[in-house]
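User: Sequence recovery, please. Input:
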């Protein structure tokens, strides 16, 4: 059996994605009941972080501990990766010592090259192009609050960034409509949009994108690595704030999600972020823990 990786959502079939989310919901209940199964006893996760993180690091590290395993935090400052050791060599060495690897890095090609040389599953913890673990948590959160997402309408308002591109993949796999509203010049990959076909619509009007939406989501204007663009992006995105006014165009039972960290009163109003009737961002963040535990169990089982 070949090694299974999770570099984008599309590495899993639709049925497998649903299996992971179903398992996550079961593991969440077991965790709440104080009955985490020690299925990772003796197993080690290596976590390579070339960018900052709160949620991704804490959820993977806590998740491994809860399942009886161990996680090692590796940063370029302390490893030979940061001193120029080729990613292929690092992959060959690290994957002989651990059971699963999570990587957060810049270029998506880096994680692809790592996975090509890894004997164990590699999980994308965010690249410049995709953030698939976030989408597993987001879909679980919608299912828990509103039921199946199939056939629903989701609106993405903001930058056509890594999280947006994972939403495009999700629209294809989970079969919902995705309306994307972004300023001109901040569109997601045109090749990806072409693949998604008419399931994904692009507009420059937030109100149009949000019309009838069951889920509205956004992200920061400037992602990690784009800090020098912050000022100019603030201007270009000034009409793209998600707030109660914008959501008046959405479905009555709309929920709001944000991968976090959020910049209050920039991409989302503080009052919407704190409106627990609509904003499910804290459940969403927590679900990173549960769904990544399920994902690791799935990938390791399927790679044996
Ligand atoms: N949403 C998310 O991935 O958060 P962190 O950057 O804190 O990991
Ligand atoms: N788009 C953001 C997501 C952070 C979780 C970034 O890449 O910085």
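Assistant: Recovered sequence (304 residues):
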């Amino acid at each position: 059996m070949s090694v299974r990786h999770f570099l984008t959502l599309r590495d899993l079939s639709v049925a497998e994605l649903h299996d992971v989310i179903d398992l996550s919901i079961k593991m969440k209940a077991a965790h709440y009941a104080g009955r985490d199964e020690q299925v990772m006893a003796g197993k080690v996760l290596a976590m390579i972080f070339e960018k900052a993180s709160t949620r991704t690091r804490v959820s993977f590290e806590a998740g491994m501990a809860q399942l009886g395993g161990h996680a090692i935090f590796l940063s370029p400052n302390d490893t030979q990766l940061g001193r120029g050791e080729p990613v292929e060599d690092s992959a060959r060495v690290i994957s002989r010592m651990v059971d699963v690897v999570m990587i957060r890095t810049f270029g998506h090609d880096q994680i692809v090259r790592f996975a090509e040389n890894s004997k164990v599953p590699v999980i994308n913890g965010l690249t410049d192009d995709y953030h698939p673990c976030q989408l597993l948590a987001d879909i679980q959160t919608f299912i828990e609050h509103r039921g199946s997402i199939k056939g629903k309408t989701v609106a993405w308002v903001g930058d056509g960034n890594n999280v947006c591109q994972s939403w495009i993949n999700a629209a294809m796999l989970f079969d919902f409509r995705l309306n994307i509203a972004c300023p001109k010049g901040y569109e997601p990959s045109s090749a990806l949009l072409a693949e998604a076909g008419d399931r994904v619509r692009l507009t420059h009007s937030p109100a149009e994108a949000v019309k009838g939406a069951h889920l509205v989501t956004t992200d920061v204007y400037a992602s990690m690595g784009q800090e020098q663009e912050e000022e100019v992006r603030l201007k270009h995105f000034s009409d793209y704030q998600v707030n109660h006014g914008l959501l008046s165009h959405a479905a009555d039972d709309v929920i709001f999600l944000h991968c976090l960290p959020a910049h209050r009163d920039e991409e989302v109003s503080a009052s919407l972020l704190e409106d627990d009737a609509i904003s499910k961002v804290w459940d969403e963040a927590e679900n990173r823990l549960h769904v990544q535990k399920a994902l690791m169990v799935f990938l390791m089982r399927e790679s044996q």
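Residues 281-302 form the longest helix (22 residues).
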